[in-house]
Amino acid sequence: MAVAGITESEGRLILALEGEIDLEQAGAVRRALLDALKKGRTVLVDLSQVTYIDSSGIASLVEALQVAKKQKSELALVAVSQRVRRVLELARLDKVFQIHPDLAAATAAGAGSPGN
């Protein structure tokens, strides 16, 4: 199960993902991301429990980021596991996404503040 849960903190939605995000799980992840963005709030994607992500999982994240920008909302990645960070770095997406080391840092940065 790739979507572990959705919680709210200080007006932000936190979408926790876990396990492997591959072709089989990417559809559920995409739906969860887009549904969260429909609420018009900042979405923080907690990737701390993700052990693997393939191109379909990355595509879901990129699509969500594009939707967020289009609707003038925000999407940031939080607590990115080392394996996922390597994939993001290889694709140079670590320069595209806001990435925060943990939820506290994301909250402290506030909406619209880039974090890396």
From TrEMBL:
Coiled coil location: none
InterPro entries: Anti-sigma_ant (IPR003658), STAS_dom (IPR002645), STAS_dom_sf (IPR036513)
UniProt xrefs under Gene3D superfamilies: STAS domain
Signal sequence region: none
Domain called STAS: residue spans: 2-110
NCBIfam families: ant_ant_sig (TIGR00377)
Family under the similarity heading: Belongs to the anti-sigma-factor antagonist family.
Protein name stated in the entry: Anti-sigma factor antagonist
